[in-house]
Amino acid sequence: DLGEYRHFMLKEIYEQPAAIQNTLSGRVDLENVRDCISGNPQKLAQVFDEIKEVQIIACGTSFHSGLTAKYWIESLTDLPCQVEVASEYRYRRQPKRDGVLVVTISQSGETADTLAALEKVKSESYLATLTICNVPESSLTRESDFALMTVAGPEIGVASTKAFTTQLVALQLLTIALMQRDSANAEKATVMLNNLKRLPALIEQSLQKDASIKAMSEAFIDKHHSLFLGRGELYPIAMEGALKLKEISYIHAEAYPAGELKHGPLALVDADMPIVAVAPNTRLLEKLKSNLEEVRSRGGVLYLFADENADIAEQENIHIIRVPEMPESLVPIVYTIPLQLLSYHVAVFKGTDVDKPRNLAKSVTVE
Ligand code: M6R
């Protein structure tokens, strides 16, 4: 039922505060956050003692949430974390490694490549398999040792929105659970848990930018190419923003880590290629600003999503949507929302079939 909404995608974008609240519910107050993972608790305790590294496997949007988690896990724990798309992982030889926790991520739990990659893992040596999934009775949930469920509710729109942000929440809970293996991290883990409680309200606030994002999106209607830039853990968010735009508006969109600009893509920059950048007030902002200047001085038009306190001003060819200041751990999750809205409005202006984009299926159950 669409209710007051014109499309399922928009409804699902607006459901994110509730979907995130449901995914956090009963979990942020746990003493051991790993208790929100279902499966044999004794085995889980043993696995947590033995993890030496994390291998994430997923496709599409779920792959992007995995890439974001790599930044979290490697900056907050001592565990190395690899992330790979399932269609590559399943056909490739991997060197034998000990103590690997294999994490699959999937909204549907039925994606053929992700399931096949899991089967491959199980025929080799691994410590345990954990799935982050939105469908309790799915194949991935059944086939994995452990599950950390997202509680997004059914997602109808082909373009994944609330499944992605709830995956990020689940991955942050997993990161915190991994941090809690070391008592030296206890305080930081508690701060992160408390920060997560602020997330639904922060998402509500970013949804209030909808009208200004809609106005901004008009500039994209007649464009054929676009570039999405981010740095650090905002790079996978830029990738997800680019995927959303190409998927529903059919505008070619490519994401780059901003530092790579001058190694090639800068040659593409002109007034006909809008450049979207996610520019929160993190330690990488100054570096990003100099990348943006590289673009502007070549006639590029910039569309920025920036912190309301960031030292960066609107000027000719720089359009800015301000996002509230927030703890750094929440930034990738909240900055996803304006990018979803941008793609949505561009697609609606262009008149595409937003909920069922051409050539795509909601769940890719064949290879
Ligand atoms: O159900 P899954 O999360 O395993 O699906 C993986 C991808 O097919 C999916 O995320 C796809 O990229 C989205 N429709 C993009 O919006």
UniProtKB/TrEMBL annotation:
Annotated catalytic residues: 362
Record-level Gene Ontology MF annotations: carbohydrate derivative binding; glutamine-fructose-6-phosphate transaminase (isomerizing) activity
Classify the source by domain of life. Answer: Bacteria
Question: A cellular component term (GO) from this record?
Answer: cytosol
User: What Enzyme Commission number(s) does the record list for this chain?
Assistant: 2.6.1.16
Keywords attached to this Swiss-Prot or TrEMBL record, sorted alphabetically, are: Aminotransferase, Cytoplasm, Glutamine amidotransferase, Repeat, Transferase
Q: Which reaction does it catalyse?
A: D-fructose 6-phosphate + L-glutamine = D-glucosamine 6-phosphate + L-glutamate
Q: What class of enzyme is it?
A: transferase
Q: Which residues form the SIS domain?
A: 44-184, 216-357
| Subcellular compartments | Cytoplasm
Biological process GO terms, please? amino sugar biosynthetic process; carbohydrate metabolic process; fructose 6-phosphate metabolic process; protein N-linked glycosylation; UDP-N-acetylglucosamine metabolic process
* Assembly information from the UniProt record: Homodimer.
Role this protein plays: Catalyzes the first step in hexosamine metabolism, converting fructose-6P into glucosamine-6P using glutamine as a nitrogen source.
Stated name of the protein = Glutamine--fructose-6-phosphate aminotransferase [isomerizing]
Q: Which organism is it from?
A: Leucothrix pacifica
